[in-house]
């Protein structure tokens, strides 16, 4: 028997959310070091919550937004923009842990000072996307962080210093994240930066 809502309509089936964003993806060695730091911080500060899986570690560069279906044309325009970006490799020291003040209380690893190379990559990618007419939703400033815990029981505030994890950044990627039934990340393209 079919269930009806209060208004006599059958609710629509749940739909997946399709998210597009540019990100930095750590290599295996950096992922392992992030995981070790996350485990130690969570235990030391009694964070609770759930640790993020190693395969999901990333640092978002430009957030392009969410949609109810995959936007192939938008992804193609974003890929064309990325191919035009000229940047150089840089070291990204993850030397701080903290949390954001929102309902899910996510904990993160970040850096005390944004490296010049990271800021330049963010800026140049933003300009290239604007030239291609690709709207970004992440704003015009960068808060470099890698989320390590979701749904912590308490915030980690103020941020605390950690043993630096030095991440050599040599490329960036466009990610399609499908949230829902599949809950999967797909790398749509990766672009190297010059050494």
State the helical fraction.
10-25%
CATH topology: Cyclic Phosphodiesterase, Chain: A
Q: Alpha-carbon distance between the termini? A: 64 Å
Number of domains: 1
Low-confidence stretches: 1-8
Strand content: 25-35%
Radius of gyration from the CA trace? 19 Å
Question: Can you put this structure into words, describing what you see?
Answer:
By secondary structure, the chain is of the alpha+beta class. The protein has a single domain (17-68, 79-192), classed as Cyclic Phosphodiesterase, Chain: A (Alpha-Beta Complex), CATH 3.90.1140.10. The chain contains three helices and nine strands; from the N terminus they run βαββαββαββββ. It has helices spanning 28-44, 72-83, 116-131; strands spanning 17-24, 50-51, 59-67, 90-99, 107-110, 145-150, 160-169, 171-179, 184-192. The longest helix has 17 residues, at 28-44.
Quick description:
This protein is of the alpha+beta class. It has helices at 28-44, 72-83, 116-131; strands at residues 17-24, 50-51, 59-67, 90-99, 107-110, 145-150, 160-169, 171-179, 184-192. Strands 2-6-5-4-7 form a five-stranded antiparallel beta sheet. Strands 3-1-8-9 form a four-stranded antiparallel beta sheet, covered by helices on one side.
């Amino acid at each position: 028997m079919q269930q009806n809502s209060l208004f006599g309509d059958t609710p629509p089936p749940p739909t997946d959310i399709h998210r597009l964003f540019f990100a930095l993806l750590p290599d295996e060695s950096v992922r392992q070091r992030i995981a070790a730091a996350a485990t130690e911080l969570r235990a030391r500060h009694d964070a609770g919550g759930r640790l993020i899986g190693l395969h999901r570690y990333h640092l978002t560069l430009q957030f392009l937004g969410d949609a109810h279906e995959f936007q192939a044309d938008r992804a193609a325009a974003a890929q064309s923009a990325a191919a035009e970006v000229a940047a150089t490799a840089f070291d990204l020291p993850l030397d701080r842990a903290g949390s954001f003040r929102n309902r899910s209380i996510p904990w993160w690893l970040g850096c005390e000072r944004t490296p010049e190379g990271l800021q330049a990559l963010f800026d140049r990618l933003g300009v290239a996307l604007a030239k291609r007419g690709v709207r970004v939703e992440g704003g015009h400033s960068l808060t470099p962080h890698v989320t390590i815990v979701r749904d912590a029981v308490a915030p980690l505030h103020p941020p605390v210093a950690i043993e630096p994890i030095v991440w050599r950044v040599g490329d960036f990627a466009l990610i399609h994240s499908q949230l829902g039934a599949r809950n999967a990340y797909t790398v749509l393209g990766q672009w190297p930066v010059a050494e």
